[in-house]
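Re: the request from the purification team.
They wanted to know what the chain is likely to look like in 3D before they choose a buffer screen. I agreed to run a prediction and write the result into the notebook, where they can find it.
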Amino acid sequence: MKKIFIITFFLVCSFILGYLFNSNKDNYERYKIYMNPNIRTDQYLLDTKTGVIWHLIEDEKKSLIWEPMLKISASIEDVEHVTNEYLNKKEEK
């Protein structure tokens, strides 16, 4: 009985650890930065989970910030969602 408990305990622990390591990997690979090799100012951040693309811009204070880009084929709901999300984050600052 003691052997079964120990084996079960190690199996459960290994599954939990495997899940934790895989979930961190997903978050690590979620965002990717792309840059145009010919023009250094063309830098883009891709959210691979949602498909939203951000571009690097200079704001009024001469600080570099990521601003969401709108897709030409985006639906009205997509545009409203991204815009509202961006404005809410901007108001929090």
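For the purification team: The CA atoms of residues 63 and 77 lie 30 Å apart.
Please add any questions underneath this entry.
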